[in-house]
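Narrative summary of target 7.
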Amino acid sequence: MTQIVYDGSYEGWLTAVFEIYEYKLKGIVFAKEEISNTLLFSNSHFVTTNGEKANRVLNGLQQRLSHHGFNNIYFAFLSELEKIEEILFRFVEYAFASPINIEGDLSRIEVSNVKKAAHLTGKESHRMKAFVRFKLTKDNLYYAIVDPDCDVLPIIEQHFKNRYSDQRWLIYDSKRKYGIYYDLENVSTVEMQFESNASSSFLAEINDENEEFFQNLWRNYFCSVNIESRKNTKLHIKHMPKRYWKNLTEKIPNLNKR
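Modeled conformation, tokenized:
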């Protein structure tokens, strides 16, 4: 058994795939950065991310898959499901070995699992586009804190860049401890420590003085458009799962309400 140790990035994983073929490695298990204690006695191969090697794998996959199937590999990787790297490698291995497109062969577990993982990421990205709620700081930066099930920031950044092109904003993933920042021209990745349960006093210090007023306006609007007699809690939770509520302005109590 060979443990493949890489930096956790998509490009790093693609480099690892290239080197598995390059060095004819067998019995593959992936590990991010540090060696797993359960595999201390296995052989370990350390991967240094290499853009040229990663692109050669991508080019090979583009020739064997449809545009949708090609994108599914990236979406599946971002799902962060358990053992997704091994699942994806078996998918890639099957794709390279087959003379025909394999995307429709759902009898193969690696094909169906990649499809399911990609769907999960796609679904989560759509929800993030709908559920991100920005707050304004004193220095005119709009920020939002999220903690999605999948690592979706890389695939939602273009949506927010297009939609909010005239304002500076930061979307921070509290689960993965990084964010995407737009400076009116470009989107960049930033790493920082900012907890989703940050104290109200800290948020009061950085928020614009009118921020709470506008949040309360939004809460009141949300309440006013809800018709009590047509309330369907089960359907509401289906479309807006409770795990998102802690970051939704309309679900946070109006602090000024008596």
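Residues 199-204, 217-222 have pLDDT under 50 and may be disordered.
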